[in-house]
């Protein structure tokens, strides 16, 4: 049942990205072009996503356990470090230059467009390189933490 839940969540996410137009790089570039032809639609999509997350998170942590797992998977709180800041900067630069975020890029890859396939290829190559350069963190599984709220 857990795999079915994950599959339908992924399909819902993909459909939401498609309906909102977030799979179109021009929408992202338009949002970032604040001094030109600014397109605020990404802000509305983000606000909707944050709103849903806030409500459902508060409701879900009141449960003793999730529906399809033995415990809630809550990552430990970590401090901000150089690796985190560098990764965030690379993500932001890549998103700003290409107009693709990993999720929308994967959804858009079914189109077969050269630009999205190049992005997904570069993203996979970057993931592979990271694992080769940081073998200690490759394959590390985070422990599951129970939420006690």
SSE topology:
Blueprint: H1 2-20, H2 25-32, H3 41-60, H4 82-98, H5 102-108, H6 114-133
Helix pairs in contact: 2-4, 5-6
Short summary:
By secondary structure, the chain is mainly alpha-helical. It has helices at residues 2-20, 25-32, 41-60, 82-98, 102-108, 114-133. The chain has one domain.
List the main descriptive attributes of the protein structure presented here.
disordered C terminus; mainly alpha; 149 residues
What does this protein look like?
The chain has 149 residues and is an all-alpha fold. The protein has one domain (2-133). 61% of the residues lie in helices and 0% in strands. It contains six helices and no strands. The protein has helices at 2-20, 25-32, 41-60, 82-98, 102-108, 114-133. Helix 2 (25-32) packs across helix 4 and helix 5 crosses helix 6 (114-133). The two termini are 26 Å apart.
């Amino acid at each position: 049942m857990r795999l079915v839940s994950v599959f339908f969540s992924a399909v819902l996410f993909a459909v939401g990205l498609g309906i909102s137009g977030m799979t179109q790089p021009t929408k992202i570039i338009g949002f970032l072009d604040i001094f030109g032809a600014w397109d605020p639609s990404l802000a509305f999509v983000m606000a909707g996503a944050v709103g849903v997350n806030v409500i459902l998170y508060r409701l879900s942590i009141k449960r003793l356990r999730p529906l399809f797992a033995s415990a809630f998977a809550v990552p430990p709180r970590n401090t901000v470090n150089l690796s985190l800041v560098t990764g965030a900067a690379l993500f932001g630069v890549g998103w700003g230059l290409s107009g693709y975020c990993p999720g929308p890029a994967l959804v858009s890859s079914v189109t077969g467009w050269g630009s999205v396939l190049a992005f997904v290829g570069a993203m996979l190559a970057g993931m592979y390189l990271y694992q080769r350069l940081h073998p200690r963190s490759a394959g590390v599984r985070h422990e599951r933490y129970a939420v006690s709220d």
